[in-house]
Amino acid sequence: MDEVDDILINNQVVDDEEDDEEMLSGLENDSKQDLEGNDDGGEDEEDDDDDDEDDDDDEDEREEDDEQEDDDGEDDAARMDKTATPTNGHQHDEQKAAAAAAAAGGAGDSGDAVTKIGSEDVKLSDVDGGVGSREASSSTHEASANGEVYEYYKHMLHAAQIADSYNIYPTAAIPIQTHVNALAVSRGLKYLFLGGSDGYIRKYDLLNTLEGKLSLTILQKHSLAESIQNAGILQSYWENEIPQKKSEMKLSANKTDYEPKVSPVHSLEVQSECLFILSGLQNGGITMQGVRYMEGSIAHYFKGRNGHTQIVNILRLNGQEDRLLSGSWDKRLLEWDLQTGDIVNEFKKSRSELSSLEMRPLYSSVDVSGNVNSGKENENADDDMDSLFGDEDEDEKQDAGNEPVETGDGSNGEENKEQISEESLNIVYDESVFMTSGLNGSVHIWDRRMTQSPALSLERGAGVPPWCLSACWGVDGDHVYAGRRNACVEQFDLKMPSKPILNLKLPSISGPVSCVKAMPNNKHLLCASRDNIRLYNVEIAVDASNSTTKSSKVPFLIVPGHHGGIISNLYLDPTSRFIISTSGNRGWQGNSTDTTLIYDIDLE
C-alpha cells in the first residue's frame, strides 16, 4: 500500500507540473496573440464603431509607452555597465547592478551614482533629499537661526542701554520651602538651576515658565501680587552629594546601596550648553556634575591638598569656560584649570570671608594694572589735589606701570569686542580685572596678572558699619556699588578710589542691603533689602547731592513682588528682558520668603 501511495503521489506531482507548464505556455500564447491583435487592430478593424477604435488607440498608446520605457531602461543599464553590450540574458543582472549602485550612492558616496530623470543624467547628490544636501541644508539653517538669535540679543541689549527707565513687574513664582542660596541659567534661558540649603539642586524649564505653560494654584496666588500667574516647571532634582571614601560609606543591609552625604548648596555655575554644572560644598570641595548626560552624577571632585577648607560660596567660569574662580569662607580666592583639575593661581591677602565676585565690564577707561596697594597710598594723599580725571602723580604712576601693551581701558584689543558672546549668548567681560567684596565691608579690585595682592582696595566711608553682602560694577566699568548694613549703597569711582563719591540712602526701615545689580543704561541700580526691591535712579541722587536745595523727587521706585526676607541673588538676563530674584540667607543670618520670583522688564 505504501508503494502504491508513493506512485500515486509522484504521478500527481508530475501531473501538477505538466498542468503548470501548460498554463504558462497558454498564457504566453494568449499574450502573444493579444499583442499581434493589437498591432493589426488598427488595419483590420477600420470599419468598426467609434468606441472600439478609441479602445484600440488607447491600448496602442499604452503599448508604445511600455516599449519606450523598456528602451530607456536598456539605455540606462548600458550606461551603468560600459564594459559589455547588454544582451537579453544580461539585462536583468545589469538592472539589478544599476539599482544596487544607486542605493549605495544614496546611502554612502552619492557622488558616483547616476540616475536618469526624463532625458537628463542627474547625480543623486543634486537631487533634493540626498544625504549631503540634507546635512548642508541642516547646518546652514542652524547657522542662520543662531545668527538671527545673536542679532536679536544685540538689538535688545542696545535698546536696554538707551532706555530712559524700566518698568519691572513679577509674572512667575517658584515656591520653595527652603533658603535658595545660588542660581544658574543656561544658554538662551533654557534651564534654571536653583541650589537650596536643604542640599538639593533643582532644574526648571525656564522657557516654558516664561511662556506661562503652567499656572499657580489659588492657594499659591493668595499671598502674591496680582500680576503673578505663572508657576515654575520643575523637571528634575538631585542631591548635592559630597564624595566619600569607600571606607567611610554607610552601606545598607544588602551591601550594595549606601547613604549619600549631602551638603547645602552654597554656589552654582553651569556650562552654557549644560554639559556640566559646578557646585560648592560645605567641606571646601567643588563637584562637577553631569546635566545633559548622566544627570546628577559626579564627574570630578576639585579638592586637593591646597584646596578650600571651608564653605565654597563663590563660583565663576571664564568666557571660554575652561577656567574657574572660587571663593570661600576660608578667605582664599583660587583659580582652577578645568582641563587638568589643578590650581593655577591663588590671589593672596584677602582679609575677610568673600561674599561676592564680579568681572569688570568692557571698555573701562581706568587702568588698574599699575595701582597695586594704591588704596593705602591714597589714604595718605592730599584729598584737595584729587580731581575727576586723576592728578598728575596718578598719571605718572599709571604711565610707569603701563609699559606692557595690555591694558584694562579697552584701547588695546578691547574696542572690537562685542558685548554679547555669539557662542554662549552671555555678556562678555574684561576678565583681566575682577572685583570682590567681603563680610568685613572691604571691596577689592584684582588684576589677574598680579596675584600677590589686590590692585585696589576701596575703603568704606565714615560712619558706615563693616559689612557688605553684595557689590557690583557699574556698566561703564569705572564705578563700583557696595550694599551696606545701614540701609545705604556706596558708590566708588576708580579714578578716586580713596573714598566713596556718593551715598545712596534708602529708608531706614528697609534694613540692610543684601543684593545690588546695575542696569544697562548706567542710570539705574537695583537695591534689594529686607522689605522691598527698589529701582534707584542714580542721576537724581547725584543731582541732589550737588544741589544746595533739598529736592522733592523720590530717587527710587519700588519693584512689586518681594517683601519680608533676605534676597540672596539678582539675575539679569543678557537682553535685560527678565530678572530672577531668590531669597535665602546664604548660610549667614536672616529669613527667607520661600519664593523665587521672575520679573518682566518693559523699556520706557
TrEMBL record:
WD repeats mapped onto the chain: 305-346
Residue stretches spanning the membrane: none
Q: Where is the composition biased (Acidic residues)?
A: 14-23, 36-75, 380-397
PROSITE patterns to which the protein is assigned, alphabetical: WD_REPEATS_2 (PS50082)
Do you know which InterPro entries this protein is assigned to?
Answer: Beta-prop_SPT8, WD40/YVTN_repeat-like_dom_sf, WD40_repeat_dom_sf, WD40_rpt
Q: Which Pfam families match?
A: Beta-prop_SPT8 (PF23798)
Q: Which UniProt keywords apply?
A: Nucleus, Phosphoprotein, Repeat, Transcription, Transcription regulation, WD repeat
A Gene Ontology biological process in which this protein takes part is: regulation of transcription by RNA polymerase II
Record-level GO cellular component terms: nucleus; SAGA complex
Give start and end of each Transcription factor spt8 beta-propeller domain: 166-602
Q: Which SUPFAM superfamilies match?
A: WD40 repeat-like
Region named Disordered: 1-143, 368-420
| Statement: the UniProt record of this protein carries the keyword GTP-binding | no
Kindly give the Gene3D superfamilies that the UniProt entry links to this protein. YVTN repeat-like/Quinoprotein amine dehydrogenase (2.130.10.10)
Q: Where in the cell is it found?
A: Nucleus
Q: Which domain of life is it from?
A: Eukaryota
**What family, per the record?**
Belongs to the WD repeat SPT8 family.
What is the protein name for this chain? Spt8p
- Name the species this protein comes from: Saccharomyces cerevisiae x Saccharomyces kudriavzevii (strain VIN7) (Yeast)
